Amino acid sequence: MKPFSTIATLAIAVGLAASVPVFGQEVVLRFATTNAPTAHLNVQVLVPWAARINAEGKGIVRIDVSHGTTLADHSNFYSRVLNDVIQIGWGLQGTIGGKFPLTEVVSLPFLSQKSEDSSAALWRLYNSGKLAKEYREVEILGMVVFPQLSIHSRKPIKSLADVKGLKIRAGSNVGSQVIQGLGASPVSMPTADIYQALAKGTIDATLVQWTAFQPFKLAEVTTHHLDAPLGASPAMLFMSRKKFDSLPKAARDLIMKHSGEAFSRQFGAFWDRVQDGDRKPVAASGKHSAYVVSEQEVAKWSKVLNGVTEKWVKDTADGGVILQAYREELTKSGAKK
Fold it and tell me: Which domains, from first to last, does the chain contain?
């Protein structure tokens, strides 16, 4: 029989081992941003988010951030997360065909003006469970809605009449419907192809956010710009639900402490700043003319494009319920149409 003191010592040791994380058990999660290391999105949002978690997560969880497209890119980020090649991913739902039809509600025109308001509203809509069937495979850490689309042209545009008959690039199905509703002809193509298409005259204009101007040098091939809230694109920061649920509770809690609605709102506010920062120098240039659709024109455009919204509601199961819920969340966030 062992002496009592030896048994007591062993009991204490076992208790300590159970309460203190064992060295080497820190969970490491790979996060591929799919962007260049110096991209403003990385520098101002994604890397600081990971850093905040890492600062508090020593011995619990660590996020290993990688940039570029070696581990994942804009086309395969979703499958890379589900297949556990990376554990955290970032990208647009619209690039994942057919999985997120209800989330497309944010792409409808004349719902909101600010990315911050839209991002907070989309997070709340997700968190309410109304979008649950679209996100069974993943755990959302942050939702963001990009800034509103504007029309950028090689020809003068100030009104609805000026848009009619133009060939305009569209980046989504709803975007194509918006262009058709305005009496123009949509031409589908990725953002990377806009520059050459405008330069060659293949298209007269493009429907795109101001945030695309700096990276794609669109100021070189456009001269006239018309701002109206013509819809936006959603994106998400996420993990696979299976992987997230397998994490220790301390790790899950820490990650969500720095995620969720507050992070989504901050993410949207970042894009609003970028949008304003990209627009101002172009609008101030003597080579460009930038117009904001007047209140009278807004009434005309809203009436013309109401059919786009009605078609989306008709074609999308539960579309009417989701649209109403999203509008309610936007109202709560103080969003302006």
Answer: 25-104+112-146+233-273 (3.40.190.170), 150-232+288-332 (3.40.190.170)
Rounded to two decimals, the pTM is 0.88
Contact between residue 174 and residue 231 where contact means Cβ atoms under 8 Å apart: yes
Q: Average pLDDT for consecutive 10-residue bins of the chain (337 residues)?
A: 40 34 75 94 97 98 97 95 98 90 96 96 98 98 97 92 95 92 94 95 97 93 96 97 98 98 98 96 93 88 94 97 98 76
